[in-house]
Amino acid sequence: MKISIVGTGYVGLVTGTCFSDTGVDVTCVDIDQNKIDNLKKGIVPIYEPGLETMIKTNVEKGRLHFTTDIKESLHQAEVVFIAVGTPPGEDGSADLSHVLEVARQIGRHIDHHIVVVTKSTVPIGTSKKVKAAILEELKKRDANITINVASNPEFLKEGNAIDDFLKPDRIVVGTESEQAEKVIRRLYKPFLLNNHPILFMDIPSAELTKYAANSMLATKISFMNDMANLCELVGADIEMVRKGIGSDNRIGHKFIYPGIGYGGSCFPKDVKAIIRTAQSYNYPLRLLEAVEEINKDQKRVMVAKIKNFFNNQLKGKTFGVWGLSFKPNTDDMREAPSTVIINELIEAGANVKAYDPVAMKEAKKIFNNHITYGKDPYDVLIDADALLLITEWAEFRIPNFKVMEKLMQQKVVFDGRNIYDTKEMMEHGFEYFGIGRTIQKQI
Ligand code: NAD
Known about the structure:
This protein is α/β, with parallel strands linked by helices and about 450 residues long. About 40% of the residues lie in helices and about 15% in strands. The strands form two sheets. It has an eight-stranded mixed β-sheet, with helices on both faces. Strands 11-10-9-12-13-14 form a six-stranded parallel β-sheet. α5 runs parallel beside α6 and α11 runs antiparallel to α12. The radius of gyration is 24 Å and the shape is globular. The mean pLDDT is about 95. It binds nicotinamide-adenine-dinucleotide.
């Protein structure tokens, strides 16, 4: 089987690579010439564990190709996936310009029947627009070609994307076409050997499922952050509360970790987009509006604690930052809490020295030389007035307290992810500020 994937970002590249690994002949397309040139040379544009090796293997086997020419990719393809970005527009709704541009390109270049699958996260009604855009182009050139459309939202998590794609909890497909269902079922069969379901449904339900999933997860995070802030007021420890509620199997332990707000390329934009969709039906999503508001505030909680500790005197203070990406195991800096925190510190006149295992290249595009970058975690602690733990990379979990103590000007730690033990930090003589933890941790 031959397929085309248009958009070679986090989703398109992982999708294309994983399909090629099952023997499918895949061509990944992107308008970014530099990205495609690099991929042809084996240079992978994103950090995703396991991806580079998998790309190399499949390129060598001759079944994974990269091009900027969509026409070339569509040649003899049975399926084309649209996996381009859907960033938030000015009003928060999803910007569909890239998706619809790809649809028009497909309409201009196909010369045979094809199944068009939208994998980008798109609002309800988009598949219809995709179909209309393709048919309009076909009509313009009097081409008597049929297409079938489907919506197949992606649920992979950056940092674990390969594993998520190879062993999905479920695959959601919206389509009204039996032929599309058949070909998509065949394509995904190798990933369903562990009996996880492929759920076929109507297109609007598939489109909404993706937003509902991300909104639910964002809600869990904002709920826990709200509880964490309450814990600080009433003298409770959110880590105890988290364990207490997580043991209830109706609630579960997953996704109930408090912190400094959700970021990344999906939750913030998807929550905004579904709020906009609902507004257009005159139905305010009050819960999600609150989720978004809480998250916005939560990204500022750490700076408020820092200002409070240093009596608002941040000018000339030096902060060592551990972690910049929006979560571990990715170099993605989109909407990362680190950007809000660091920008506020810079504005207040502080010096920031940061270290991240993989995201420093991306971070430099945002902070330029307004901050300095360390060669390892301890490098950024030299003369630091405090350590700010922003992203919970594994390598930060068991630090060498003795080395920290020698390097730092003041023994102060602001832990935005609660990865350290309050009691242990106090035993080592650190002033320790987590999220929602005002009392000593009971062990
Ligand atoms: P991305 O920004 O990493 O990649 C998008 C790619 O599309 C870019 O390389 C861009 O150059 C390319 N592109 C734009 N217009 C194009 C065109 N006309 N022709 C060819 N290529 C074009 O985006 P992403 O993170 O992979 O997200 C893609 C979609 O998948 C979004 O809708 C996103 O919400 C959704 N999604 C993302 C994730 C994630 O974790 N990143 C997970 C699930 C779903």
